[in-house]
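Example record for the data management plan.
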Amino acid sequence: MTEGQFTRGSRVSTVLARKLGGELLRLRDEAGLTQPQAAEALSATAAKVAKMERGWVPFRDPDIRILCDLYGVRDAKAVERLLNLAKTDRERRKAKGWWNHYPELRSLVEYVALEDIATGIRTWQGAFVPGLLQTPDYARALAIGNADWDDPDEIERFVEAKIARQAKLTDGDSLGLWAIVGEGALRQLVGGRDVMREQLARLLEASRLPNVKLQVVPFLAGSHPGMTSAFSIVSFAEPGAMDVVYMDTTSSTLWLESESDAARHIATFERIARSGLALRDSAALIERIRKEL
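Corresponding structural encoding:
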């Protein structure tokens, strides 16, 4: 079992299922209905609805359609995205997602599953370049430096999987990425000067994509709200969909899935952004550091 999953007997709760359950709970509350009323529409028990809203059971498409109709969800795209979320969760449980063929991803598996259906990601990293913007050599050097793997083949598989994620930035339904990086991450010689020159060139290339915003928080910014931790905020398509906050620490993976947690981290992210350089000035600093190498 990966980080980001919880068990209750034979049940499994994944981040995807908890997100879907949370959105159905929000829709039910907005419709002013109770769990017994939802259960009656499904010809089920209130206990089943409670398990669904907590993400303890996989979701059937007919149940989602019935609940959307009951809750007054008329937007076909909103319903379709909930169905896609349920499908991805079912595939995740059956290990059908491409990311599940890479056990080397470890605790990143749940995050990559969410990233695959996301429309936007805001990420703050003070110590290293965000994964979606890493070159293979940089990712490899990070993995070696972390000393989490003993087998070189395992490292290569991990790097392969991390780079595969980056297709989301350039495919037909491109992911929106707003990345803020600390200046220290740009100056840390991960893998040596040649690796860092290539990595900084990759950042400049990515910053020119229409769906990517890249900011740098310079040393001269002084103290700012991002100094205590790094985090990513994952967003989804329809209006009102709950954002999910992801934090990866040395000992564990932390998911924050409440509206209040998301709002707090969005506000923190915006304050960090105000401490950062403008996009053009950020690119200029990256280029200057690259030339210094």
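Summary line stored alongside the record: The chain has two domains: 6-96, 103-292.
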